[in-house]
Amino acid sequence: MLKVENITKYYGDFLAVDNLSFEVNEGEIFGLLGANGAGKTTTFRMIIGLLTPSSGKITLDGHSIDYSITDKIGFLTEERSLLTKMTVKEQCIYYGVLKGMQEKDILTRLDELLKKFKIDDYKDKKIKELSKGNQQKIQFITAIINNPKLLILDEPFSGLDPFNVELFKEEIKEMAQKGSIIIFSSHRMEHVELFCKKLVVLKNGKTVLSGELKDIKHKYRKKNIVVSGDIDVDKIKNIDGVISVTLDNLEYKIKISDEKIANKVFEVVSKGKNITKFSVEEPSLNEIFIETVGETYDK
Question: What is the pTM of this model?
């Protein structure tokens, strides 16, 4: 288990992370979210031992994270951290040795991963010769070459096409199934919803949302109603509690302030024509994030 207990981090007088706590069990994929400057990167650096918290503590399986633990950690940074004049093989040997691996074990694992990511013939190519997407694959491989117990993924799908996103997704899920502890950060909220059952959202270093995703959605009062058919849009807009009505892909999306408003909307919709769908749905994580943080999560 990764345990983050009441960690606070100051840079001089600037408070970067304020009393943050969460736990991630083996086999869980945990979301750590926030807009730029929210404190995510500082938190990642404290978890892997690059920064020391001003107060609080971080433990992995009950042990403080130091050089005796870091060989069990993998970190995919948002920024490129590859040595572009090296070949893929040289790069992976370099990172693997830093993680305490033997070269023969590194090469066996590398061959397995290159094949899995459909780039088996790239082993002797220099990093600078690879496309942005294939460089991202190599960066991911260097992060997981040691089969880490704890894996931190910061924007893992950057530069990938949909096909390769699916390859990454499968590998991440497989690692979780094998017991890895995974912390996942992405500005693509649909990816967070796909992977993460628990999450924390930071704003200016403070926790503004925390817990099980299903509970966060359930407690969020605003809901969406999706309707297919011919409806009186003006009458619906005039219902007290209706926030907006939009048409998207031949379906009306009606945003309401509270689930209780749904019955009033249904009364009007039921008088329409050709009604084939009336569905009250939970808001997306993206909607909740924007309202809670006050901005979109764009990089």
Answer: 0.86
